[in-house]
Design a protein that fits this description.
By secondary structure, the chain is α+β, with helices and mostly antiparallel strands. It folds into two domains: 142 residues, DNA Polymerase III, subunit A, domain 2 (DNA Polymerase III, Chain A, domain 2), CATH 3.10.150.10; 48 residues. 21% of the residues lie in helices and 22% in strands. β6 and β7 form a beta hairpin.
Protein backbone atom coordinates (compact mmCIF):
# COMPACT_ATOMS: atom_id res chain seq x y z
CA UNK A 1 0.00 0.00 0.00
CA UNK A 2 1.08 3.62 -0.47
CA UNK A 3 -0.32 6.96 0.68
CA UNK A 4 0.44 10.25 -1.03
CA UNK A 5 2.06 12.77 1.32
CA UNK A 6 2.41 16.53 1.14
CA UNK A 7 5.45 18.42 2.38
CA UNK A 8 3.38 19.36 5.40
CA UNK A 9 2.87 15.69 6.29
CA UNK A 10 6.66 15.28 6.37
CA UNK A 11 7.86 18.51 7.96
CA UNK A 12 5.01 20.18 9.91
CA UNK A 13 5.07 18.70 13.39
CA UNK A 14 5.20 19.50 17.10
CA UNK A 15 7.22 16.78 18.78
CA UNK A 16 9.49 16.35 21.79
CA UNK A 17 13.14 15.33 21.90
CA UNK A 18 12.52 13.30 25.04
CA UNK A 19 13.55 9.76 24.12
CA UNK A 20 11.92 8.44 27.27
CA UNK A 21 8.58 9.02 25.55
CA UNK A 22 9.35 7.68 22.06
CA UNK A 23 5.78 8.06 20.72
CA UNK A 24 6.01 11.82 21.24
CA UNK A 25 9.17 12.02 19.11
CA UNK A 26 7.26 10.59 16.16
CA UNK A 27 4.84 11.65 13.48
CA UNK A 28 1.88 9.32 13.55
CA UNK A 29 0.37 8.37 10.19
CA UNK A 30 -3.35 7.70 10.70
CA UNK A 31 -6.22 7.05 8.32
CA UNK A 32 -7.03 10.77 8.09
CA UNK A 33 -3.58 12.37 8.09
CA UNK A 34 -0.46 12.91 10.20
CA UNK A 35 -0.64 13.73 13.90
CA UNK A 36 2.12 14.97 16.19
CA UNK A 37 2.18 16.19 19.79
CA UNK A 38 4.69 17.03 22.50
CA UNK A 39 2.10 16.69 25.26
CA UNK A 40 1.32 20.42 25.27
CA UNK A 41 0.39 21.05 21.64
CA UNK A 42 -1.14 18.90 18.93
CA UNK A 43 -0.99 19.33 15.16
CA UNK A 44 -3.04 17.46 12.55
CA UNK A 45 -2.18 17.70 8.83
CA UNK A 46 -4.56 15.99 6.35
CA UNK A 47 -3.24 13.95 3.45
CA UNK A 48 -3.57 15.32 -0.08
CA UNK A 49 -7.12 14.68 -1.29
CA UNK A 50 -6.17 12.51 -4.26
CA UNK A 51 -5.38 8.99 -3.03
CA UNK A 52 -5.31 5.53 -4.53
CA UNK A 53 -8.47 3.55 -3.84
CA UNK A 54 -8.26 1.63 -0.58
CA UNK A 55 -4.73 2.77 0.27
CA UNK A 56 -5.50 4.46 3.58
CA UNK A 57 -7.76 1.65 4.79
CA UNK A 58 -4.86 -0.82 4.71
CA UNK A 59 -2.55 0.81 7.27
CA UNK A 60 -1.08 -1.78 9.67
CA UNK A 61 -2.60 -2.04 13.16
CA UNK A 62 -0.74 -0.65 16.17
CA UNK A 63 -0.39 -2.29 19.56
CA UNK A 64 -3.87 -1.11 20.53
CA UNK A 65 -5.34 -2.20 17.16
CA UNK A 66 -5.51 1.28 15.61
CA UNK A 67 -4.37 1.58 11.98
CA UNK A 68 -1.29 3.75 12.19
CA UNK A 69 2.46 3.99 11.59
CA UNK A 70 4.82 5.99 13.82
CA UNK A 71 8.04 7.32 12.27
CA UNK A 72 10.59 9.56 14.06
CA UNK A 73 10.08 13.21 13.13
CA UNK A 74 13.83 13.76 12.71
CA UNK A 75 14.00 10.94 10.17
CA UNK A 76 11.19 12.44 8.09
CA UNK A 77 12.61 15.96 8.26
CA UNK A 78 16.01 14.76 7.01
CA UNK A 79 14.40 12.79 4.18
CA UNK A 80 12.29 15.77 3.17
CA UNK A 81 15.31 18.08 3.04
CA UNK A 82 17.41 15.67 0.99
CA UNK A 83 15.04 13.80 -1.27
CA UNK A 84 11.59 15.31 -1.74
CA UNK A 85 11.08 16.67 -5.25
CA UNK A 86 10.21 20.17 -6.35
CA UNK A 87 6.49 19.55 -5.87
CA UNK A 88 7.17 18.76 -2.21
CA UNK A 89 5.34 15.44 -2.36
CA UNK A 90 6.24 11.86 -1.56
CA UNK A 91 4.52 8.61 -0.62
CA UNK A 92 4.41 6.43 2.46
CA UNK A 93 4.72 2.82 1.36
CA UNK A 94 4.17 -0.15 3.70
CA UNK A 95 5.04 -3.66 2.55
CA UNK A 96 3.28 -6.92 3.43
CA UNK A 97 5.39 -7.27 6.59
CA UNK A 98 4.40 -3.81 7.83
CA UNK A 99 7.78 -2.20 7.07
CA UNK A 100 7.43 1.45 5.96
CA UNK A 101 9.38 3.36 3.33
CA UNK A 102 9.26 6.93 2.08
CA UNK A 103 9.16 6.96 -1.72
CA UNK A 104 10.07 10.08 -3.70
CA UNK A 105 10.40 10.73 -7.42
CA UNK A 106 14.08 9.71 -7.27
CA UNK A 107 14.34 6.87 -4.74
CA UNK A 108 12.84 4.84 -1.90
CA UNK A 109 14.16 5.03 1.67
CA UNK A 110 13.33 2.35 4.24
CA UNK A 111 12.59 3.83 7.68
CA UNK A 112 12.46 2.20 11.10
CA UNK A 113 9.09 2.76 12.77
CA UNK A 114 8.59 3.31 16.48
CA UNK A 115 6.82 0.42 18.15
CA UNK A 116 3.87 0.74 20.50
CA UNK A 117 0.66 2.75 20.54
CA UNK A 118 0.23 6.49 20.02
CA UNK A 119 -1.57 8.51 22.74
CA UNK A 120 -5.35 8.51 22.26
CA UNK A 121 -5.43 12.12 21.13
CA UNK A 122 -9.03 11.80 19.89
CA UNK A 123 -10.16 12.10 23.50
CA UNK A 124 -9.25 15.79 23.68
CA UNK A 125 -10.73 16.88 20.31
CA UNK A 126 -13.75 19.08 21.08
CA UNK A 127 -17.18 17.86 20.02
CA UNK A 128 -20.19 19.95 18.97
CA UNK A 129 -20.29 23.59 17.90
CA UNK A 130 -17.63 26.07 19.07
CA UNK A 131 -18.73 28.92 21.32
CA UNK A 132 -17.09 31.47 18.97
CA UNK A 133 -15.28 31.51 15.63
CA UNK A 134 -13.11 34.12 13.96
CA UNK A 135 -10.88 33.92 10.87
CA UNK A 136 -7.65 35.95 10.71
CA UNK A 137 -4.64 36.18 8.42
CA UNK A 138 -2.09 33.64 9.71
CA UNK A 139 0.91 35.87 8.88
CA UNK A 140 -0.58 38.80 10.80
CA UNK A 141 -1.35 36.56 13.77
CA UNK A 142 2.16 35.09 13.90
CA UNK A 143 3.69 38.56 13.54
CA UNK A 144 1.80 40.13 16.46
CA UNK A 145 2.48 37.10 18.68
CA UNK A 146 6.19 37.48 17.99
CA UNK A 147 6.02 41.20 18.76
CA UNK A 148 4.18 40.54 22.03
CA UNK A 149 6.79 37.94 22.94
CA UNK A 150 9.48 40.63 22.58
CA UNK A 151 7.71 42.65 25.26
CA UNK A 152 8.19 39.80 27.71
CA UNK A 153 4.78 38.22 27.21
CA UNK A 154 4.80 34.49 27.94
CA UNK A 155 1.04 33.89 27.95
CA UNK A 156 -1.76 35.58 25.99
CA UNK A 157 -5.53 35.83 26.30
CA UNK A 158 -7.64 35.75 23.11
CA UNK A 159 -10.83 37.86 23.13
CA UNK A 160 -13.47 37.99 20.39
CA UNK A 161 -15.99 40.82 20.61
CA UNK A 162 -19.45 40.97 19.09
CA UNK A 163 -18.63 43.89 16.82
CA UNK A 164 -19.42 44.17 13.09
CA UNK A 165 -15.72 43.69 12.23
CA UNK A 166 -15.19 40.97 14.91
CA UNK A 167 -11.63 41.96 15.86
CA UNK A 168 -9.43 39.40 17.59
CA UNK A 169 -7.85 41.06 20.62
CA UNK A 170 -4.69 39.38 21.91
CA UNK A 171 -3.83 40.53 25.43
CA UNK A 172 -0.75 39.85 27.47
CA UNK A 173 -1.44 37.96 30.66
CA UNK A 174 1.54 39.62 32.36
CA UNK A 175 0.85 43.30 31.68
CA UNK A 176 -1.28 45.74 29.66
CA UNK A 177 0.28 44.99 26.26
CA UNK A 178 -2.17 43.91 23.58
CA UNK A 179 -2.54 43.53 19.82
CA UNK A 180 -5.57 43.52 17.53
CA UNK A 181 -5.89 41.51 14.32
CA UNK A 182 -8.88 42.28 12.12
CA UNK A 183 -10.99 39.32 11.11
CA UNK A 184 -11.72 37.94 7.66
CA UNK A 185 -15.30 37.41 6.54
CA UNK A 186 -16.02 33.69 6.26
CA UNK A 187 -19.08 31.47 6.22
CA UNK A 188 -18.18 29.27 9.21
CA UNK A 189 -21.42 27.31 9.04
CA UNK A 190 -20.70 26.31 5.45
CA UNK A 191 -17.07 25.50 6.34
CA UNK A 192 -18.09 23.24 9.25
CA UNK A 193 -20.62 21.46 7.05
CA UNK A 194 -17.82 20.77 4.57
CA UNK A 195 -15.56 19.37 7.29
CA UNK A 196 -18.28 17.05 8.54
CA UNK A 197 -19.08 15.88 5.02
CA UNK A 198 -15.46 15.06 4.18
CA UNK A 199 -15.04 12.79 7.24
CA UNK A 200 -11.28 13.04 6.77
CA UNK A 201 -10.42 16.39 8.29
CA UNK A 202 -10.78 17.49 11.87
CA UNK A 203 -10.83 20.87 13.53
CA UNK A 204 -7.95 20.34 15.93
CA UNK A 205 -6.08 23.49 16.91
CA UNK A 206 -3.19 23.66 19.37
CA UNK A 207 -3.61 22.28 22.87
CA UNK A 208 -1.52 24.45 25.16
CA UNK A 209 -0.97 24.19 28.90
CA UNK A 210 1.35 22.45 31.33
CA UNK A 211 -1.42 20.32 32.84
CA UNK A 212 -3.06 19.26 29.57
CA UNK A 213 -4.86 16.00 28.91
CA UNK A 214 -2.25 15.27 26.25
CA UNK A 215 0.50 15.50 28.84
CA UNK A 216 -1.43 13.15 31.10
CA UNK A 217 -1.97 10.63 28.30
CA UNK A 218 1.71 10.78 27.36
CA UNK A 219 2.62 9.62 30.84
Amino acid sequence: MSIRLSKGNLTAHVTTKDDYRPALTAICFTQEGTVSTDGFRLLFVPYPKEQKDGAIETLPLSADYHPQVMIPARTLTNIAKALVGKNGEAELSVDAEGKPSIVTESCSVAVKPIEGAYPRYEQIIPEGEPVASVAVNVDFLIDVLRKLKRTGTKCVILDVYDKPCKPLVIRSYQDDAYAIVMSIDMDFKKQRQYLKASEKQRELGDIIGGNSKLEAMAG
